[in-house]
Amino acid sequence: MNKTKNIYLDILQEEFELPKDNQKIVKVIYKNPNHIFDVLGEDEIVFKAILNSRFQKTVWVKVNKLVIVEDVGGNFPEIVKVPTDNYIKFLRKNNAIPSIFEEKLENDGEDLFCINPNQRTIVYSSSDSSSEEDN
Fold this sequence. Notes:
Elements lengths: L2 H10 L10 E10 L3 E5 L5 E6 L14 E5 L7 E4 L3 H9 L5 H10 L19 H7 L1
Parallel strand pairs: 3-5
Antiparallel strand pairs: 1-2, 1-4, 2-3, 4-5
């Protein structure tokens, strides 16, 4: 199996665990070049984080997505996990998501993590209303 398939399998088959002491849940607010992201911490301070080199060519990180960063002692903290929708639900059940992000999630609703913004939304109209107007 090649490296890409292994990474996808790791992401899809990951075991849900709460963040460790040296890990934080943050929100991506801007993507800079070279896999560097501006992230918002739970104390409302914006700082930069770098994507783990293992994920750089295979994982897409969206703006406004929650990620888990770990301080590894370099210039920037490193993004070590990009949680899936099910993982985020697990974190919500265990109250691991900081309150600042939890409030925004409640305001935005559950669909925040399920909508693809690059895909057109199709609005269906009922044909009953047009037939009634014709009469």
